[in-house]
Structures are given as C-alpha cells and as structure tokens.
Design brief:
Structural class: mainly alpha
Strand content: under 5%
Helix content: over 70%
Number of strands: 2
Strand order of the largest sheet: 1-2
Shape: elongated
CATH superfamily of one domain: Tetratricopeptide repeat domain
Oligomer: single chain
Length: 312
C-alpha cells in the first residue's frame, strides 16, 4: 500500500479529512478491497488498544469530573454566600419598613429649630427577585452544565486521538544487522537474546537478558532492545528511562530510534507538550533517521491540538 493511502486512513480515523478527501476516500473504499481491508485492520488495532487501556481513560475522565465538581462546589458556596447576603438585606429592609409604618413618630417629624416638617424616608423598598433574575440563574446553570459536558467530550477526544496516533505509528523495531557479530559470544546468551527478540518472544528475551554478563547488561545497545521488550509488555516508565539515558549518553547506535520511541511513549501517556518538543527536535535534525516520520506525525499532533483549542 502507498504512503498516501496510509495517510488517508489515518486522517479518516482521526476525523480530519477535508470534504474533498472524504468523498475520494469513500469512493476508494467501495472500489478497492485491499484498501478496505487495510482500514479494517487499523480500526481493529485501535479498538484493541482502546479496550486494553479503558481503565486508564476512565480514571482520566473521573479525575477530570472530580476537578469540575470541586470548581462547582466553590462556585455554589460563593453563590450561597451572595444569596444569604441578599436575603438578609431583604429581611432587614422589610422589618425596617414595617417598623417605620407602625411607629407614631415615623409618620411626621418636626425639626424644632427650623419648624420644618420632615417626611419619613420612603427610599428603602422591599426588593424581591424578579422573574428575569430567575431566568438568568437557570440560564447560567444550563451554561455550566453544557460547558462541563463539552469539556469532558473534548478531553476524551484529545485522549483518544493521542492514543490513536501512538497505535498508528508504533511497531516493534527490527534491524537485520542486529544479528551481526554476536554469534558464539557470551556462551550463546547474546545470540539467544537477539534471536528471541527477532521471533517476538519478548518474555524469553527478558529472561535471557538476566543471564548476560554485567558488562553487556549495561551496554546501551542491549538496553535499547530491553526497552523495546518492556514496551511490548505494556510498560512505559522503565523503557522511557532507558531511552532518556541512551539519548543522554550519546554512545549507542540507537540514539535516533530512542528519540522516536520516546516521543511515541509521550503520546501514549497523553503528554502532548513533551511529544511536540521531541518531535520538533527530531524534525530539524538532518542526521535523524526519523526526520520525515516526525514531521508527518507532528503535523497530525498539531492539527489535533488546534482543533481542540477551537472547541474550547
């Protein structure tokens, strides 16, 4: 399949196709069975990933909802204080008005020095909430509920989009040159290590890693393979630390690979800011093997981010 077809599928899954691209995409789905099968494979992979990470997404949304509820409680407290203040003023005004109406001296007062008649102050009136005020309060409550709902929807879209980009761009690293210069070394353990990794037996790869010599276990090239094994096992923190160390040490043949997979891990963790920073670094590095991939992925990440900001 051509790269442009893969890019069309990614845009379709992310719902960022233009109207012209969407029409062409739907026509190609009807006429190209291979293209249709590739789309099904992508959607199956994404659905599988979503199911395995449903708990993470749910926890994220629960945390978001708790933050929103905490803000609502603060707002309701301020509203309650304001309402209590208004109510006290209304009661005070009502009592004062009744007192002035019943008091004999409230009707007419005479200034003995000026012989002027002082009429009672009628400027204080009992102010009640008008129907318009009630409608305003209801409208504000409705707006808050709608904003909360929209915030949850946008957060979920952002989470799903980042995870979809991770799934679309992640694949286990393999290079045939890995098997060069390892045969017969360290009693065969190193050869077994790479062989298990080649056949995607990641559990035994990690077991054999523990049998390697201490020097090999500290080798950044070997640690890169271990990090890939850990990623395949669903871990994020340990492989992330290994990739960061490899990049800092600057002595491994897998520095560029480590940068690329670290950026993907940031996407998997929904850390859009760090993913953007690292992808930009890869894009401008003329020596990087992943320069074109980073530029393509960065464009999609930025598109998702800008769409999210428009809807805020």
């Amino acid at each position: 399949m051509e790269d442009k077809d893969l890019e069309l599928i990614e845009k379709y899954v992310l719902r960022i196709l233009s109207e012209e691209e969407r029409v062409a995409f739907e026509l190609k789905l009807k006429t190209d069975s291979i293209f249709r099968a590739e789309l099904n494979d992508y959607e199956s992979a994404i659905n599988s990933f979503k199911n395995s990470h449903a708990i993470d997404i749910k926890n994220h949304l629960v945390s978001l909802e708790n933050n929103i509820r905490q803000k609502e409680r603060k707002y309701n407290l301020r509203k309650l204080i304001l309402f209590g203040t208004v109510l006290l003023l209304l009661i005070g005004g009502f009592l004062y008005k009744n007192y002035m109406a019943k008091s004999p001296t409230a009707e007419i007062n005479v200034d003995p020095m000026q012989n002027n008649i002082i009429l009672p102050d009628t400027s204080i009136k009992n102010k009640l909430l008008k129907p318009d005020d009630t409608l305003f309060i209801k409208s504000e409550n409705s707006k808050r509920k709608e904003k909360k709902k929209q915030t949850e929807i946008e957060a979920k879209k952002m989470v799903n989009s980042a995870e979809q980009l991770f799934v679309m761009n992640y694949e286990p690293y393999w290079d045939e040159t890995m098997l060069m210069d390892v045969r017969g070394q360290n009693g065969g353990y190193l050869e077994q290590f790479f062989e298990y990794y080649r056949i995607k037996d990641y559990r035994n790869t990690l077991i054999v890693f523990d049998s390697l010599s201490n020097m090999l276990r500290q080798n950044d090239n070997i640690l890169f393979i271990k990090a890939m094994d850990l990623m395949e096992s669903g871990e994020t923190e340990n492989p992330k630390s290994i990739f960061i160390n490899i990049i800092d040490h600057k002595r491994s043949r897998y520095i560029y690979q480590s940068e690329w997979y670290l950026a993907l891990l940031f996407l998997k963790e929904k850390n859009i800011e760090k993913a953007n920073q690292l992808l930009n670094k890869i894009k401008i590095d003329k020596q990087s093997l992943y320069r074109n991939k980073a530029e393509n992925l960065l464009r999609k990440v930025q598109l998702i981010t800008s769409e999210s900001k428009k809807n805020e």
